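S.,

Sequence below, as promised.
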Amino acid sequence: MKKIAIIFLLLLGVQFTSFSQSLDEYLKIAAENNPELKAYFNEYLAALEKVPQVGSLPDPELDMGFFLRPMEFTMGNQRGQLQLMQMFPWFGTLSARKDEASKMALARYEVFQNAKYSLFYQVKNTWYQLYRLEEEIRITEENLGILKQYERLALIRFQSAGSGSGTGSTGMQGTSNMSSGTSTSSATSMGGMSSGMNSGTTGKSSPKGGSSMGSSPSMSGGGSGMSDVLRVRIEIKELENTSALLQDTRLPLKAEFNQLLNRNVNEEVAIADSLSLSVIIWERQALLDSITHNNPMVKMLNAEEEAYEAQKRMAKLEGRPMLGAGVNYMPFSPRTENGVSMGGDDMVMPMVRLTIPIYRKKYNAMQKEAELRQTAVKERRENTVNQLTTRWSTALRDLDDANRRTKLYREQTDLARQTLNLLMASYATDGRDFEEVLRVQQQLLDFQLKLITSIVDQHITISMLENLAATELN
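The prediction came back faster than expected:
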């Protein structure tokens, strides 16, 4: 068993060159412990044991017989007979059988390789999903803390406005009118930047003609401030619910990951702090060539085609005669005739046997079967290459899309932060545009989550390409 385990690890041929040491360790654990992968490996070992079986000569045949009453001959009394015969297939038959079994074993090995890379992709995919989940939880908690700060700020402004409602009526009226004008212009803003700039510009020149709602000090101060508090509390409740859902999602995802490693579902999973951008250094056509030549399923079909070629050659040789060589031994005992002892010498007779395969239909059918199976494998390989090409093209499209989205959401996140800073400065000064602050804050949260998703999608797509090419691409 120790020797088999060593062979198993050598055949895995895992090259861990990714960025995270913890992910490398998980891939190694999965390769050693996953029961499905071990089942494929044992099937490969079983196929290897077929080679010595078909490559051996037929067992020798030994015939023995004894007479209950000695057979009387002139040369003496025959007590029995011993015959030993060894049959030999036609020249090259055994090597053809071994070649066919070896190619079939190689096909089983490629099935094992395909299962291994599929397992690695599942482990990576689930690990990246866990990373995205943890980042979403972190970003959600950060934004929840920011909203709670907004709530405190809105409460302070509400209390300040309530205590100073008797003074500054004109100023509060202008503020109310500015808030109304800004919310209208923000509907057509891009990424929150235009609304932030409009808010800052409008705040410098307050119109003197206010609405009827702005003429009351209590409405402009207390009512408006309290509505800001209620708005932010609505956002807080929504974000708390989102955070709780994300927390609940962690358990099944972690259980799925641990099951791939064949360990306890409650085992803790180490996740990287951050994912760096990953690029493929291969040219696209070279990557396609590597996929269509090195994909385990293509190599499996190549091995099967070679196996059927050997099977076709073997069927032809099976139609040739088999030769046999042996010896016949007959023991004699002396017999007495007229008082004279006669004979008694044992006899040894070399023998040759030859089979005559005159019924040709079965041998012709064997060759035809091998040819048809070989044709079927060729067609299946062509279809597999077409499917791999489609998956290669789709994966590259997804990778380009992930790269574009990553660049876009980085820029959108920066712009949203700048807009939010401008709006917060305006709100801290005169209490305007709080609704716009919340809207841009929600935009910022959305951009941050989409950025994490795009980065994870990038790594998952590269993992898919590595699964197709059966090699590391970085």
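Confidence is low (pLDDT under 50) at residues 1-20, 166-222.

Coffee later?
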